[in-house]
Amino acid sequence: MNTSLAVWKEKFTNDLLNSEDAKLSKYNIMNKDLYEELLQEIKEAKLASKKTSLQYRRVSRFDIIEVGNVQRLIAKTKSDEILHYLPVKEIFDVIEAAHTAIGHGVRDRLRMEIILLKALTSKRAKEYIINIKTKKK
Fold it and tell me: What is the pTM of this model?
């Protein structure tokens, strides 16, 4: 990974973890440990014959899909749309991939590509990376 890209990724991750979004709900911005913990709780809740109130909440809000050998946490929606939850360390990579996929495009094309990826991250996280990418070099 390019050194400046690694610096951006580290700054982005730190800013997200310290942002207001992270303080509003622990599910807006999740570290890898919380993400893995939620995956485990949901697996256990699905297998439980008698569910606790916490397990009912988990099962009604989240689901798990398997992509290859990787299990992903998704939001339950009424439509067929799949919204992925991501650990904070993966958010930058997803947004960077979208940026590269559109040929290092400007803000509006990047925003559309991120929407198409359907990564469930906070609006602030998306805006932050868009602002970084559109600043003059």
Answer: 0.65
CA angle 57, 118, 68 (to 5 degrees): 80
Beta sheet of 70-75, edge-to-edge order: 62-67, 70-75, 83-85, 119-120
Q: Taking Cα atoms as reference points, which of 66, 67, 64, 68 lies closest to residue 38?
A: 64
The whole-angstrom separation of Cα 42 and Cα 73 is: 9
Encoding tokens for residue 74? Answer: 């998704």
pLDDT tens by residue, 35-91: 999 999 999 999 999 999 999 999 998 999 988 898 988 888 888 877 888 888 887
Sign of CA dihedral 68, 73, 78, 83: negative
Task: Provide φ and ψ at 72, rounded to 5°.
Answer: -120, 140
Strand partners, 92: none
Q: In degrees to the nearest 10, what's the CA dihedral of 113, 117, 9, 76?
A: 140
> Are the beta carbons of 131 and 123 closer than 8 angstroms?
no
Q: Rounded to 5 degrees, what angle do the CA atoms 90, 101, 20 make?
A: 40
Report the alpha-carbon distance of residue 49 to residue 118 in Å, rounded: 32
